């Protein structure tokens, strides 16, 4: 008995020591492989948030290796475990729209007219995020803008590959647009909105609905640091911000491939640009090119990237990256010019910055009215930290106030 007890103590000691070493290794990784640019306000806060995220991922990997749960499941659990309870200013209800879970936020204050409706698609790289992770954000938008907000709990990758998330968001939006009277919403005043991957989904849904004659026209689209293309991961913002938290260049491509194929087996080819044939890239160069990025966004260091060709085998596995429902920046002008008034928020220290800038140009070139708001001191994910108690950022609050 004493021997067994001793062995158990030794096992626990080794496990704890190993766990501490792994977490310390994660922290060392954060400091050695990430960069906090001097233009970011409150850099210590950003560093702390990044350490928390990396440590959570490391613990998840440990639990996966010992067979308790998958790393993705653990991170999702940790992100979504908080519940806020009732809100004195909002009616909040969980429903299903066409087999898609949604959470509806309706202001309690009476309105003499029909309200606007906001379909909200959360970010998280199509892999993470949920109704819970964006609960505070949706409550804030509903309260401050006195709008009915519908948050969509779309299916996540890698379990559910493209186009699952897009289809869920599209079906939920169409259902809402066909039933706006049940929620006191003006059918001509429905907006699609999303952050990061959710911004991608909002853009794709907006494009799909642009040509529909059986539905009211969307009032607007709100794209918060959206990812909109996968042809070029060497645009200026991808080079300049490759190691800036909370989204590294490599992780942006990784998440996209998780959504596309459920794995990241072609990650290196995507990062170096050898995943799409040169003739196809040249065809889209009128829309996806550093030449379309204003010069002021290249001064922090940008080196033109040599065009690389790809093998037929690689292209076969990733060719759907050229579909506008996955990469909305590649939609034809005939679709783009029908899009509603648009709001695009970008952050200077974000790998996805140039996706937003390129889409802004495409919309304007096609006569679409665009309101662009750029956070000079912002980084990817800053909006969702607006109300994180002691880890909030003033730039996130500015951006959210502008959205409202």
What do you see in this structure?
- With 404 residues, the chain is α/β, with parallel strands linked by helices.
- It folds into two domains: 79 residues, no CATH class; 225 residues, Alpha/Beta hydrolase fold, catalytic domain (Rossmann fold, 3-Layer(aba) Sandwich), CATH 3.40.50.
- Helix content is 42%, strand content 16%.
- The protein is built from 14 helices and eight strands.
- It has an eight-stranded mixed beta sheet, sandwiched between helices.
- Strand 5, helix 6 and strand 6 form a beta-alpha-beta unit.
- Helix 1 packs across helix 2.
- The longest helix has 32 residues.
- It is globular and about 60 Å long.
- About 3% of the residues have low confidence.
């Amino acid at each position: 008995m004493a021997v067994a007890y001793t062995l158990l103590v030794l096992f626990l000691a080794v496990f704890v020591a190993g766990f501490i070493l792994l977490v310390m290794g994660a922290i060392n990784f954060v400091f050695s492989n990430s960069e906090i640019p001097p233009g970011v306000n409150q850099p210590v806060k950003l560093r702390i948030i990044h350490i928390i995220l990396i440590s959570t991922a490391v613990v998840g990997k440990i639990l996966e290796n010992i067979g308790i749960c998958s790393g993705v499941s653990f991170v999702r659990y940790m992100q979504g475990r908080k519940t806020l309870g009732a809100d004195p200013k909002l009616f909040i209800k969980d429903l299903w729209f066409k087999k898609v879970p949604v959470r509806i936020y309706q202001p309690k204050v009476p309105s003499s007219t029909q309200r606007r409706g906001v379909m909200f698609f959360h970010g998280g790289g199509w892999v993470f995020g949920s109704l819970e992770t964006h609960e505070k954000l949706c409550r804030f938008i509903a309260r401050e803008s006195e709008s009915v907000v519908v948050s969509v709990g779309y299916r996540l990758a890698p379990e559910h590959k493209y186009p699952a998330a897009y289809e869920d968001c599209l079906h939920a939006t169409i259902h809402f647009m066909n039933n706006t009277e049940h929620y006191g919403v003006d059918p001509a005043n429905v907006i699609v909105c999303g952050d990061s991957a959710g911004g991608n989904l909002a853009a794709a849904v907006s494009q799909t609905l642009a040509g529909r004659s059986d539905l009211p026209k969307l009032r607007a689209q709100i794209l918060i640091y959206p990812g909109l293309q996968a042809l070029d991961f060497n645009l200026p913002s991808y080079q300049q911000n490759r190691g800036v938290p909370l989204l590294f260049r490599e992780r942006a491509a990784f998440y996209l491939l998780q959504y596309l194929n459920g794995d990241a087996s072609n990650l290196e080819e995507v990062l170096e640009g050898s995943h799409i044939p040169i003739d196809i890239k040249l065809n889209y160069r009128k829309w996806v090119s550093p030449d379309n990025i204003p010069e002021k966004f290249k001064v922090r260091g940008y080196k033109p990237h040599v065009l690389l060709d790809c093998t037929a085998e690689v292209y076969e596995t990733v060719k759907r990256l050229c579909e506008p429902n996955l990469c909305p920046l590649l939609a034809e002008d005939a679709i783009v010019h029908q899009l509603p008034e648009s709001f695009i928020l970008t952050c200077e220290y974000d790998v996805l910055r140039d996706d937003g800038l390129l889409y802004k140009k495409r919309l304007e070139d096609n006569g679409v009215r665009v309101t662009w708001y750029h956070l000079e001191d912002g980084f990817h994910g800053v909006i969702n930290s607006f109300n994180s108690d002691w880890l909030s950022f003033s730039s996130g609050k500015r951006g959210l106030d502008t959205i409202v």
